[in-house]
């Protein structure tokens, strides 16, 4: 099942994708379940798809979680998940521009699978992790690479406004062998099965929830495969995951 968040007649609603229409939900399905209003909105009449979730408290991200990406960054994959946070103010949706900040001369794409938490998770075991997942979406962990190196820690480099595109929808099912692809101006840059992750989703949830409580609507970015690269103003970047969707964003300079 695919769930969209969209602008609709001056309000923001949620809907289940049903062929060429959205079945409108009565409330946010993370908190209000899947009761419908009975209304169907043709996809052609949807104002715009919005980021499918705005995390209430945090975006948790895992660094260097694919071996070949760790190698291209000049090291091995960490033995334990390497966690950092992105602010929820970095989140944008499908089609929203990624803005290159004036402080950086090297802003990179990082295509990633995102996990949306559905139930409060604190000290969850790997065996119980799946029960705390609401669904999956596509993310771009946009990174000011020069500032990441300069600062020595990652808050600024990962935290600019527009540096966390999410979307286009939340898919509640995920094939374990789904392939992630990133294209820059249509050219394939990253391609790897999500099964190449060093730390899998249950182990990330178990590890992260041993540090801080995960709340419904929190999002976990699970790391990027090799092939990261620079984006500049005028580019278009697409991250696609089989069965989940395609997240396309233009890139522009700050005004
Ligand atoms: Mg990343």
From TrEMBL:
Residues 1-52 form the Rv2993c-like N-terminal domain. Residues 58-252 form the Fumarylacetoacetase-like C-terminal domain. GO terms for biological process: carboxylic acid metabolic process. Keywords: Hydrolase, Metal-binding. GO terms for molecular function: acetylpyruvate hydrolase activity; isomerase activity; metal ion binding. The keyword ATP-binding does not apply. SUPFAM superfamilies: FAH (SSF56529). Its EC number is 3.7.-.-. This is Fumarylacetoacetate hydrolase family protein. It is an enzyme of class 3 (hydrolase). The keyword Cytoplasm does not apply. The lineage of its organism: Bacteria, Bacillati, Actinomycetota, Actinomycetes, Micrococcales. InterPro entries: Fumarylacetoacetase-like_C, Fumarylacetoacetase_C_sf, Rv2993c-like_N.
């Amino acid at each position: 099942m695919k769930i969209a968040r969209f602008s609709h007649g001056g309000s923001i609603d949620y809907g289940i994708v049903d062929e060429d229409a959205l079945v409108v939900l009565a409330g946010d399905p993370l908190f209000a379940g899947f009761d419908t209003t009975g209304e169907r909105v043709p996809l052609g009449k949807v104002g715009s798809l919005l980021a499918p979730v705005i995390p209430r408290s945090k975006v948790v991200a895992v660094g260097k979680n694919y071996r070949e990406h760790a190698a291209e960054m000049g090291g091995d994959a960490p033995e334990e998940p390497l966690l950092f946070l992105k602010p929820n103010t970095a989140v944008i949706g499908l089609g929203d521009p990624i803005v290159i900040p004036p402080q950086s001369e090297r802003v990179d794409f990082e295509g990633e699978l995102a996990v949306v938490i559905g139930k409060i998770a604190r000290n969850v075991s790997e065996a119980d992790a799946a029960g705390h997942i609401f669904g999956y979406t596509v993310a771009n962990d946009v990174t000011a690479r020069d500032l990441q190196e300069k600062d020595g820690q990652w808050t600024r480099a990962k935290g600019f406004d527009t540096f966390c595109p999410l979307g286009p929808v939340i898919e509640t099912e995920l094939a374990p062998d789904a392939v992630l692809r990133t294209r820059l101006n249509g050219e394939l840059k990253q391609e790897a099965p999500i099964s190449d992750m060093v730390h899998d989703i249950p182990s990330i949830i178990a590890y992260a929830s041993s540090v801080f409580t995960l709340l419904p609507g929190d999002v976990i970015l699970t790391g990027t495969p090799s092939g990261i690269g620079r984006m500049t103003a005028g580019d278009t970047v697409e991250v696609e995951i089989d069965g989940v969707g395609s997240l396309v964003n233009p890139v522009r300079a700050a005004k």
